[in-house]
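Now for a sample.
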Amino acid sequence: MAAKSKPFVLIDALLEMYAANNRITRYLIENLPEEAWRAEPPGGKGRTVAAIASHIHNVRGMWLKAAGGEPVAKVEPQTVTRAEALAALDRSYAALNKLLAGSLAGDGRVKGFRPDAVGFIGYLVSHDAHHRGQIAMLARQAGHPLPQKAMFGMWEWGQR
């Protein structure tokens, strides 16, 4: 007799998808060549990789504040190290995951965001993905591209 499969639980799947998104962002930052972290953007305009990573965390913190979640301290784009940025991303992810889990288990609303928690997760993933693209492009333009394995690795959600 075949074993019964577990029923699909949408809330668990949404939270796991958000966790995978965070792991992909971490994977990108962990696999960047060291020289890319503070490389100047082409033409001297725009953010460095360090500033983009800081921005991702700081925007998460802004949303946590607006939604009444656990506060997280900002990081300074001009001084943040890669290790500090990764730790900050872990903190903001954990606080948002807690906020999202509570919202999804409740009425599905997130204070300050419409339409609902599912839309908020979509926003958060889109925001991170947009900036992952910027980071990858900036590293390449600055002459310090990501290794090809890491470029492909960002698409391996089932392994991250």
